[in-house]
């Protein structure tokens, strides 16, 4: 793993995948008041980047993440909305075809977000299964940017080769690619490999956004295997990985104690130490406070190297996203 060049540590963003997701996160509408309080606390503490997607929300709660985020932003006083960046991702479903294939989806997202939409992102690449679909959709997203209907453009789940192609395509139209979003954590460090997307982002001036920086919560748990497990698929993943990552958790705990910080802050700051903006999933006020507090300190070089070394040797790894392109 290579460290970024000298610069200020990136900020911290908020992910809203869990808002509306029953399957993985056990969402219930009774949680909405707590989610609203969490959002307000995050804004109060200076977190300004909020990421969602039109596919977030399972079953009858499809689109719920965008709707909740839109309502929460609308409830802020006008002066508090300034400075926020609301980003959504549009999914390249098979029926979304052609240059205007995202038109209806974009307008639906904007309605759910109550007009508060600053960045639109391609949710994943179709390069692995329908490469002919992606180019036209990207041109359509570029049209939105060129027409001033959205302020910036990003992509997700692209590898280094695909990222260069998309960046070049937009550059030929005189348009900037603002961000790339990939899975990145101590249990999913592939983006940092030699020739990986982190290096390409630095070269091209693209913000690297790290989703699942806490590995679905695994990296916020202290070492030891006597703890209760989450329900559903997360519990199955925890049961499989937790015994394999104890040396990593022990190293994280040592560093957390040295900074009088929660372990989650160590995982967050490891991403920042590698030049990425972690998108931390938040559902409770205390989680917002823990995430924001991580911005008050940084890992030193020795701590980062210790974590890099233990992560490389770690036997547990997060499942790769099947839509990640090369």
Tell me what the structure shows.
This protein has 326 residues and is an alpha/beta fold. The protein has a single domain, classed as Alpha-Beta Barrel (TIM Barrel), CATH 3.20.20. Helices cover 41% and strands 11% of the residues. It is built from 13 helices and eight strands. The protein has an eight-stranded parallel β-barrel, surrounded by four helices. The radius of gyration is 19 Å and the shape is globular. The mean pLDDT is 94.
Concise overview:
This protein has 326 residues and is of the alpha/beta class.
Low-confidence stretches: none
Fourth-level CATH superfamily:
NADP-dependent oxidoreductase domain
Helical stretch tally: 13
Integer count of domains = 1
Strand coverage percent: 5-15%
Series of secondary-structure elements, N-terminal to C-terminal: EHHEHHEHEHEHEHEHHHEHH
Q: Assign the structural class, choosing from mainly alpha, mainly beta, alpha/beta, alpha+beta, or little secondary structure.
A: alpha/beta
CATH topology (level 3) name? TIM Barrel
Query: For the CA atoms, what is the radius of gyration?
Result: 19 Å
């Amino acid at each position: 793993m290579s460290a970024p060049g000298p610069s200020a540590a990136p900020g911290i963003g908020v992910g809203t995948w869990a808002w509306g997701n029953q399957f993985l996160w056990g969402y219930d509408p009774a949680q909405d008041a707590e989610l609203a309080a969490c959002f307000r606390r995050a804004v109060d503490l200076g977190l300004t980047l909020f990421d969602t997607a039109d596919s977030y929300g399972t079953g009858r709660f499809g689109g719920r993440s965008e709707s909740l985020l839109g309502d929460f932003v609308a409830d802020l006083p006008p002066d508090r909305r300034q400075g926020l960046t609301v980003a959504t991702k549009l999914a390249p479903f098979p029926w979304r075809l052609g240059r205007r294939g995202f038109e209806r989806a974009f307008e639906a997202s904007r309605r759910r977000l109550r007009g508060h939409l600053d960045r639109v992102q391609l949710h994943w690449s179709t390069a692995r299964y329908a490469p002919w679909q992606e180019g036209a959709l990207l041109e359509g997203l570029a049209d939105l940017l060129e027409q001033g209907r959205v302020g910036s453009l990003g992509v997700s789940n692209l590898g280094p080769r695909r990222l260069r192609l998309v960046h070049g395509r937009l550059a030929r139209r005189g348009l900037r690619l603002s961000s790339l979003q990939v899975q990145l954590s101590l249990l999913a460090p592939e983006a940092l490999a030699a020739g990986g997307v982190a290096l390409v982002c630095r070269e091209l001036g693209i913000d690297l956004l790290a989703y699942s920086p806490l590995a679905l919560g695994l990296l916020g748990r202290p070492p030891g295997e006597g703890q209760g497990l989450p329900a559903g698929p997360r519990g199955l993943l925890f049961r499989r990985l937790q015994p394999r990552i104890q040396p990593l958790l022990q190293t994280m705990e040592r560093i957390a104690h040295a900074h009088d910080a929660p372990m989650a802050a160590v995982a967050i700051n490891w991403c920042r130490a590698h030049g990425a903006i972690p998108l931390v999933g938040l559902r409770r006020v205390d989680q917002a406070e823990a995430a924001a507090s991580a911005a008050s300190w940084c890992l030193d070089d020795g701590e980062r190297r210790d974590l890099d070394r233990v992560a490389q040797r770690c036997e547990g790894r997060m499942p790769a996203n099947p839509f990640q392109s090369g």
